[in-house]
Amino acid sequence: MPEKPENKFQLDTLAVRAGQVRTAEGEHSEPVFTTSSYVFDSAAAAAARFSGEDPGNIYSRFTNPTVRTFEQRLAALEGGERCVATASGMAAIYSTCAGLLKQGDHIVSSRSIFGSTVILFNNYLAKFGIEVTYVDQSDLQAWGNAIRPDSRLLFLETPSNPLTEIADINALATVAHEHDCLLAVDNCFCTPALQRPLDMGADIIIHSATKYLDGQGRCIGGAVVGSEEIVGTDVYGFLRTCGPSMSPFNAWVFLKGLETLGLRMERHSRSAASIATWLEQQENVTRVWYPGLRSHPQYELAQKQMKAPGGLLSFEVRGGKEAAWKIIDATRLLSITANLGDTKTTITHPATTTHGRLTPEEREQAGISDGLIRIAVGLEAVDDIKDDLARGL
Ligand SMILES: *Cc1c(COP(=O)(O)O)cnc(C)c1O
Hints:
393 residues; alpha/beta; Aspartate Aminotransferase, domain 2; Aspartate Aminotransferase, domain 1; 2 domains; seven-stranded mixed beta sheet; 12 strands; 40% helix; binds pyridoxal-5'-phosphate
């Protein structure tokens, strides 16, 4: 990408162009480098690579050209100095914690985070003496009160899943930095096309590339984006030794996914907004949660920090579980699955799937009622999605 320095291009340009290094073959599309290791011209050249004097490739657990192109492209989109790709979104979260934290450190986390992240914190980080305190995502005061002298990291997802609560990234970055903590934002639901947390003061971005970065439901992967010091040293150091690196093939799939990211997120958002507005008018629907609706309690904040409201929405129907299951089972087009961030619209009953392990009291506290349905709106024609929902409504 000559002429302009890379970071001066707009997001849609970076999504298509950033990070590509053409080989001597002159290929137009980025190649996949399926090689586990690399050869050196001489014993001295090998020694220079291993000593770090020459920064070239040694082994694909450390670096791979296809993975590097994906990393540089995503770093450019998020406005971060450095990105490291990981084998999954969970590997991104684990590598961040393992790379940055030590025994005796404390995390303050939003209560409304991905279920596996809670299990990682409670069952695995706890074994190594790292404690976590959970707070209500939208209660700024609670975050401040939960911070202790040994706190190191604040962790959140915004909007949350399934109730689309918004965290004030700017305000929480200030709280984190006042207490010498880092703020990590799982940006999986927005992607940089809709929200750039580093611009708002966050220190670390986590991605499950499995969701919207691929956007077509094909591969598992993840990424961490941030400064050279945090991501390039601490997180990468853990990753290259402990091994949850991204496969070159998956990196290539995600790279191609990024090229259409802006287009897709715009369409996911437009369709979800149309469905949310339509659902609000349905007689059997008691409430709709979507950050693009004026009825959303944090509508103003969502407008301020997100470019568009995204593809995820939830709604509650009269009649509890029975009514909710009836709507889900009446669909013929929508996929009954807990996954999201796909071209295909998915429909889920959180109370009996993603949040099924919680006790009824815990579910009530989390706001997950029996009549709640979550939809991750895909790229089908929006009227066909409405017709499919209307059948059970
Ligand atoms: C799916 C998901 C993850 C985990 O990602 P995997 O790629 O499945 O490991 C983490 N955070 C959020 C918000 C997710 O939706």
